[in-house]
Amino acid sequence: MVRIICAISLLVLGACATPQDRCLRQGTYDLRTVNRLIQETERDLARGYTYETELNPVSIGVGYCTGYSGTIRFCGDTGTDTIRRAVPIDAEQKQRELAELKRKQAELQNAAAPRIASCQARYPS
Questions:
Q1: In the record, which residues are listed under signal peptide (predicted)?
Q2: pLDDT at res. 79
Q3: Which of 8, 20, 25, 38 has a CA between 20 and 30 Å from the CA of residue 105?
Q4: Which one, of 103, 102, 104, lies nearest residue 30 by Cα?
Q5: Helix, strand or coil for residue 18?
Q6: How far is CA 89 from CA 21, 28, 59, 97, 110, in A?
């Protein structure tokens, strides 16, 4: 029941966006992604390090398992623990990445301009 209510709520909230907003969001997805990557790269350069996420299996308890012969034995249940570690960066490599991202950003801005104008003309606010 809770899942149904959550699903309906998400549909209602998704319908709140205007057609112009949906059109603009679709037309600028790649540009927004590149903008986010530029922000992350600039933040990494300012800090001098980045974060890596590592998934580690961990034992979360003991349960009962059955073997092929039908015997019951103890076995460990495992889960995954996420660890975030600071990792030094190669500043020169990050600068090259940033320059490439900014080049791509300019290209995407030029490509998005007609889409934005089209969305605004098709769905005036």
A1: 1-17
A2: 83
A3: 20
A4: 104
A5: coil
A6: 37, 30, 32, 12, 31
Cα(10)–Cα(4) distance, integer angstroms: 10
Number of neighbouring beta carbons within 10 Å of residue 24: 19
Largest Cα span, the chain: 71
Q: Which residue type, as a one-letter code, is found at position 104? A: K
Residue with tokens 């020169």: 92
pTM of the predicted model as reported, rounded to 2 decimal places: 0.67
Give the count of beta carbons closer than 10 Å to the beta carbon of residue 1.
Answer: 5
Domain ranges of the chain: 18-48+89-125, 51-88
- In tens, the pLDDT along 49-104 reads 999 999 988 877 777 777 777 777 778 778 888 999 999 999 999 999 999 999 99
CA–CA separation, 25 and 14 (whole Å): 12
